[in-house]
Amino acid sequence: MIRVAICGASGYAGIELIRILARHPEVELVALTSSRWEGRSARDAVGVGGAVGRLRFRSSVEATPDAVFLATPAEFSLEEAPRWVERGALAIDLSDAFRHDDRAVYGLTEIARERLRGARFIANPGCYPTASQLPLIPLVEAGLLGEGPLILDAKSGSSGAGRRLDDSLLFSELMDNHYPYRVGTHRHVPEIERGLGRAVVFTPHLLPTRRGLLVSAYAPLATGASAAACHALLAERYRDEPFVQLFESGEREIGIASVVGTPLCRISVSPIEKLGIVQIFSVIDNLLKGAASQAVQNFNAALGIEETTGLS
Amino acid sequence: MIRVAICGASGYAGIELIRILARHPEVELVALTSSRWEGRSARDAVGVGGAVGRLRFRSSVEATPDAVFLATPAEFSLEEAPRWVERGALAIDLSDAFRHDDRAVYGLTEIARERLRGARFIANPGCYPTASQLPLIPLVEAGLLGEGPLILDAKSGSSGAGRRLDDSLLFSELMDNHYPYRVGTHRHVPEIERGLGRAVVFTPHLLPTRRGLLVSAYAPLATGASAAACHALLAERYRDEPFVQLFESGEREIGIASVVGTPLCRISVSPIEKLGIVQIFSVIDNLLKGAASQAVQNFNAALGIEETTGLS
Amino acid sequence: MIRVAICGASGYAGIELIRILARHPEVELVALTSSRWEGRSARDAVGVGGAVGRLRFRSSVEATPDAVFLATPAEFSLEEAPRWVERGALAIDLSDAFRHDDRAVYGLTEIARERLRGARFIANPGCYPTASQLPLIPLVEAGLLGEGPLILDAKSGSSGAGRRLDDSLLFSELMDNHYPYRVGTHRHVPEIERGLGRAVVFTPHLLPTRRGLLVSAYAPLATGASAAACHALLAERYRDEPFVQLFESGEREIGIASVVGTPLCRISVSPIEKLGIVQIFSVIDNLLKGAASQAVQNFNAALGIEETTGLS
Amino acid sequence: MIRVAICGASGYAGIELIRILARHPEVELVALTSSRWEGRSARDAVGVGGAVGRLRFRSSVEATPDAVFLATPAEFSLEEAPRWVERGALAIDLSDAFRHDDRAVYGLTEIARERLRGARFIANPGCYPTASQLPLIPLVEAGLLGEGPLILDAKSGSSGAGRRLDDSLLFSELMDNHYPYRVGTHRHVPEIERGLGRAVVFTPHLLPTRRGLLVSAYAPLATGASAAACHALLAERYRDEPFVQLFESGEREIGIASVVGTPLCRISVSPIEKLGIVQIFSVIDNLLKGAASQAVQNFNAALGIEETTGLS
User: Fold this and answer.
1) Which segments of B9-58 does DSSP mark as H helices, in order?
2) Tens of pLDDT along B267-299?
3) B194 is in which domain, residue-wise?
4) pLDDT tens-place string over residues C35-55
5) Which of D273, D265, D281 has the alpha carbon at shortest distance from D228?
6) Residues B47, C308: C-beta atoms closer than 8 Å
7) Residue D235 distance to chain A (closest CA, Å)
């Protein structure tokens, strides 16, 4: 059994990590940290049963486990993650502290699988970057996208913002509401642009849902390229991927509700081109494929465990 | 007092018409038609009090009133609206039956005000076209937009679809969900393109809210144009408009919740340009500025009544 | 024109007061106080137009107006409300600071109308007490209720809790959730018990909605009394009330959505008795009949203005 | 491997059965029936991967499997379930067709475990009866409840009503809404009363959520009994149950969100007695402990498989 600790285990991504790792057959959860829930049991706080349910949240991890998931703020991760690596643990950091740092492997699993094998330090991608890059990186690499602005209109539920006590995140303020935020300045933009190797116009909007994230991409086609070619390329690229599903011109098939609670990314390519634009939609659960389940995929990939273990 | 009938008064836009016209000081509501609610009183069905509350829904309008609002399906309007015009009533049709028909004035109030004065037949704009055209028509006319794809990523609550018994509109299917629909084929596209005089990529998405509609426009700037110039032009154009409010780079100020229940259109222009694109956001209540309140604005404009009457 | 100030005008009830009083034909709004929004205009913050839209939120009211609405925390009201009364203004306090204080008239309008005429200091009832007392006081007074526990199972949207930055009021925590709170200890219990003259078991539950409040009352019938007699009594009692509507055995007719945005209280009495119990349901908009619109009803009643003015 | 078929697999409970049984280590899913989705794959419709994802929905089950779950309307189950039993399959029916029929074991797992062992025909309890009976049956049996009305005020999300095309279940009608329904006449009443051996006042209310169900019970205490005694009895009774969790006077701990997506029933007993009443709250996911997960618990119990298999 691989002995695993979760730091920041009472955050929304941390809770999902507990739920996934509690049923992972090769994992023994040995420590959960949280200042908010210090002293409470996992059973009471999160509802999990068995031995994990008897674990209590602590302020810190004492002995060095085999692997540490950090679902902590970037400032905390920045200090702590390298320490765990030095002590010999596999560190998987869910913050954006190391996503542009060569010490860590950037863990967009389906794209980075080769580099993940044997890795000891993994920077887990952000939620928006995951949903943006999975459909677009293959198209960019194949030369199917042309010049002209690449526009990403993104929508996400509230849990992406964490459990911050901010007026804008109150139920009374967000319920029945919807609006763009951090227009032109979201901190995920450099991560997306680095992954795609080109500039993008990326605009996130807040949805009145807890979970789920949709990216609507408006991408200029290269000369001679077509929506059909984009669809065919993605179908070929992701044919054997257990957690990427491709649809033709989906509506409800690619609704966020179709992926919430799952480790999936669903993608559709609209067959209708207009003004040289192809429309590509991708949806994920921001807390799973956009955070916790992708972290466990990376954990499995790094340790040579079957990648779907604990996730199917 | 102007004697007014509402056809299709039990639909979502029809109900809003009842509420607005019940408090319009120059209107006497004389007839409400509905097959769904035939025989019920307006008080029981809609909660309005006074004389209007005692009106009962009927299957048809008997005597010819001074004005008729048709909140009916397009097929019904197509037959009925011209008949009311022939009989001498002012007809205001909320369907899309006459939006491309020269017999009717296309009632985007702030743009068409001159043509509305004295009109006897008005085609009320659609909800998506209203929110799309109000910010963009002045920019197109001023030459501030350049070549390249004009992209409209639109999001609307469920009431825009009416009270149709469709599996996709069930609470259990739409709650916590969000997805694009009728990609590239929405029936509002020609209406928007006619108003703007250019092709657009328009993609609607369904929001898990009852009301409210946001259009996120990604518009190519003309050479020498800037986001600041776009903002200045709209500020000037709409300075004295009671129902159009301009914001600088809004987030919650242009959330759909800020306009639901109001006759307003709120617009913001992001000051950040990137890749030659200016981002413009506009929000309305799809049932009010996108339907019922704009219809009453048009009624007031046609009859020479102060335009905000019944709406402020 | 009656010169009116609103203290605490950026709270949820305060915002509703602005909207109502902005269209009240006998009121001139002269001051709005708020620490949160100090310096902002009412147009930007709340969307109202005209002269009221140009009012700015200030930290305090300077000149003494004719009337002051206090939508402020109880501690603030406790000090301020009596001062305004001393200075000769009509004071209407929406907090619970004076609901048990003989200096103020307890303003459950339909019950207290006689005492309100000419009043200079009014304690506006709480939201739960309003919905609880309107159907039950007439039944208690008529002797239709018997011994045995009177159970009030109440459900309310989040806005009743105000805009507090509390973890439990975050969107991510309340969305898709529902639970009882302050079981047996809610501060509204003494207010309800005083109004009814008997002890009650009152249990509030939080709904995942912004507005709306339902009280499901399970009341023991007196010997010889019946559900039909209860219905008949309430029908007689409220026949001419503009803002109380009685239904027979309602379902959707008494859904909270049927009263949100209105000054109404809707009541139904189930005709089915079982185990000696009659079930009575009442719904209000907690921010309107449970706060702002009832305050304006009381204002009108105190000053001898037609009670529905500004509200219909 | 136990070969299993699911009839009515495209209903909300049926979909949950697919998800659970797809990861049950001793089950091979061999057939899914659905008229709605006939011909579609489970991967496209439900998102499950692997071999189950390649199963297609069919109109009927051909070969006789080892076990059949019927998530079908009662009329269908009434005919089909006994046929499967005759052919030698274990039949677990989720409708209410056999809940009062001695041929089938009534599968409230924690109460009926002894009778379930080796059973060949199981009637799965309804969602409201499950949440009502789990806390109350032990109290009734221990004589802790006294005379006087036992009141159950219940609240459930929309998925309990299935995917019916009914006007009241449209998103635009239910969103932001809440109301009682079938007051005094709900078809679950006899099932609850049979389980408790006494009459109840049971009133369901519709919540604007997809899932989750709360029962607020107001129960008269027997002479000498106390809330503390009720809590102690339930703590003892359910101490070793993996899927029943007891809380002291919970609020958010017993919110419906704490059990949605889990096979749990969470219960709290308020320590505050008033007017001789003890308040007991219980929450479940209506589609899991109220349907699919309890059905799999029963399947496991009948076949002598560890009861939490596939569920933890």
Assistant:
1) 12-22, 42-46, 50-54
2) 999 999 999 999 999 999 999 999 999 999 999
3) 127-284
4) 999 999 999 899 898 899 999
5) D273
6) no
7) 14
